Amino acid sequence: MKHTTLALMAFAFLAATPVLAWTPPIDAQKSLAAGRAWADVAPDADGVAVIRAAVDIAAPARTVWSVMTDCRLAARMIANLTSCKVVDGDQARGWDVREQITHGNLIVPTIRNVVRSDYQPYSLIRFHRVGGDLKTEEGEWRLEALDGGAGTRVIYINRVAANIAAPAALVRAGMRHDTPKVLLALRRESLAAAKGS
Predict the structure, then answer these.
(1) For residue range 11-27, what is the model confidence (pLDDT) as tens digits?
(2) β-sheet with 95-102: strand ranges across
(3) What angle do CA 154, 155, 158 make, to 5 degrees?
(4) For 34-52, what is each residue's pLDDT tens digit?
(5) Burial status of residue 171 (CB atoms within 10 A of its CB: 0-12, 13-18, 19 or more)
(6) pTM (predicted TM-score)
(7) What domains, with CATH codes, occur in the chain?
(8) CA 146 centroid distance within chain
(9) Integer Cα distance of 92 and 83 in angstroms
């Protein structure tokens, strides 16, 4: 289940809500300074989970952005991802709609997720559900410059709920466990891209 729950929140893209007014608290900043990714997952109304997470990456925002938005790289960061494709729009016009499909297992079914992303290069991606199997998905990725632009703090916020039978607390625990893995994979791929450029 833990790998499939990644698909419930990772690399989906949405519209802003008040929950998005968030910056990492002191304990999160200590983890970030120590080189760790940080994530918290809390319950909200109607079975929604609110994910707040962050990671620091020693690469410029432009490099991190290029990795985040490349469907060809998504499977390196999202476990069990079998498909990622742009089905409408494009980043050059400031938005797109993406479909991602993750392979299921005995506990969590195969999930098709369709989200619209609105882009403000190289600092903000807001996303929201427009189709697929999730009940709710809305949030944003923020990229903030560190060390005069040599590094980037990535902040991820998502309100997500799925139509699955697993207990909500178990799903949140899976997200809490897997979200840092996604962010650390983003860092790994971003550092590789920075090294290769």
Answers:
(1) 443 333 445 679 999 99
(2) 38-43, 49-57, 151-162, 134-146, 124-132, 111-120, 95-102, 81-90
(3) 135
(4) 999 999 999 998 889 999 9
(5) buried
(6) 0.87
(7) 2-196 (3.30.530.20)
(8) 20
(9) 22
